[in-house]
Automatic annotation (TrEMBL):
Keywords: Membrane, Transmembrane, Transmembrane helix
Transmembrane residue ranges: 38-61
Keyword Membrane (UniProt): yes
The protein, known as: Uncharacterized protein
Length: 233
């Protein structure tokens, strides 16, 4: 079950018990949230999420001059159709309908493998431009002002995925395995919000800023990252 730990708890990863989320100043943070193992046919991705104000300190904050942004693109097939929509339709998946039954919910996040209906559905979600969706399709879904982020192990939002259905300000979401793309669903990133990606600096999994993600439909290919943090000014 996905739980937020109190400021005095310390939950260590069962896979990497010696690694904790540290502040940029080298101090160890007093709390870690165990988030589970992501299992697909090739690998297992144990996750932790550092929560709260300490997590805000835990990820390296770039200087304004150092910020590089990556923008998503919607991939089209040879016929000019949105590729993820066509792939989902071929599997009998209604991208505006409910999540397929083969999606796995583990400790607060969704995960799945390539070739499953769940993978096709989640992949399509990040390509939907909800501002242009017909009202009858919107009615299939209860609206939400909260944003979701889906992380992928491969380029072009391929490979195994981890989807955080709701992400909150001041929380960092971590994976020990390398991620190379991501997409944002439900809504875009607003003017005062930022989604920063980072990776290891020594034993600090969030210690080195990599790139900042920009909202909008589509998939963003990124340099390797292991940590994301959503925050507002």
């Amino acid at each position: 079950m996905y739980k937020k730990s109190s400021s005095r708890q310390l939950l260590k990863s069962s896979v990497h018990p010696s690694v904790t989320c540290s502040q940029s100043y080298g101090q160890k943070l007093p709390k870690i949230l165990q988030a589970s193992s992501f299992i697909n046919m090739f690998m297992s991705i144990p996750l932790v999420a550092c929560v709260g104000i300490f997590a805000t300190l835990g990820q390296a904050l770039p200087s304004p001059a150092a910020v590089v942004e990556v923008k998503p693109i919607v991939i089209l097939d040879a016929q000019g159709n949105v590729e993820s929509f066509a792939n989902a339709t071929a599997l009998g998946v209604d991208i505006y309908g409910p999540m397929p039954d083969d999606a796995k919910f583990v400790d607060g996040h969704w995960e799945g493998e390539p070739g499953t209906k769940a993978h096709a559905w989640f992949r399509a979600q990040i390509d939907i431009d909800w501002d242009s969706v017909p009202e009858k399709e919107k009615e299939k879904r209860q609206g939400s002002s909260q944003m979701e982020v889906t992380m992928f192990t491969g380029d072009n939002c391929s490979g195994g995925f981890i989807s955080w259905g709701i992400i909150d300000y001041g929380e960092s979401y971590l994976t020990w395995d390398n991620m190379f793309s991501l997409g944002i669903g439900r809504r875009g990133i607003r003017g005062n919000e930022h989604l920063d990606l980072s990776t290891f600096a020594g034993d600090d999994i969030c210690g080195r800023f990599v790139i900042r993600a920009v909202g909008g439909p589509g998939c963003a290919n990124t340099p390797r990252y292991n940590c994301l943090r959503f925050w507002s000014e």
